[in-house]
Amino acid sequence: MELDLAGLAVVAVVFMVAGFVKGVIGFGLPSISMGLLSVLILPDMAAAILIIPTFLTNVWQAFVGPHTL
C-alpha cells in the first residue's frame, strides 16, 4: 500500500482509534496502531510512521494534569 491520499486517510483513522483507546485506558497507542498498520503496510514503514504520534501523545500526557512538575 502506497501512502497516497487514501493511504493517509487510513493511517489517520488508525491513529484516531488508537488515540481513543489511549485516552480511555491511558496506554495502547503504539500496540494498537502498530498492529493495525502492519496489516495494511510493511511493519518497518508502520514503525517509522509510529514514532512521532507516540512521542507527541506521551509528552502531552506528561504535561497535562495537576502534578506536572
Polypeptide structure, described:
- By secondary structure, the protein is mainly alpha-helical.
- Helices cover 78% and strands 0% of the residues.
- The chain has helices at 5-25, 29-40, 43-63.
3D shape: elongated
Distance between the termini: 43 Å
Give the biggest sheet.
none
Oligomeric description of these chains:
single chain
Q: What would you call the structural class?
A: mainly alpha
Percent strand equals under 5%
Low-confidence blocks of residues: none
Please tally the β strands and state the result.
0
Helix content: over 70%
Overall residue-averaged pLDDT value: 86
- Secondary-structure element series: HHH
List the defining traits of the structure above.
elongated; 69 residues; 3 helices; mainly alpha
Q: What's the SSE blueprint?
A:
Layout: H1 5-25, H2 29-40, H3 43-63
Helix pairs in contact: 1-2, 2-3
Outline:
The protein is an all-alpha fold. The protein has helices spanning 5-25, 29-40, 43-63. α1 packs antiparallel against α2 (29-40) and α2 packs antiparallel against α3 (43-63).
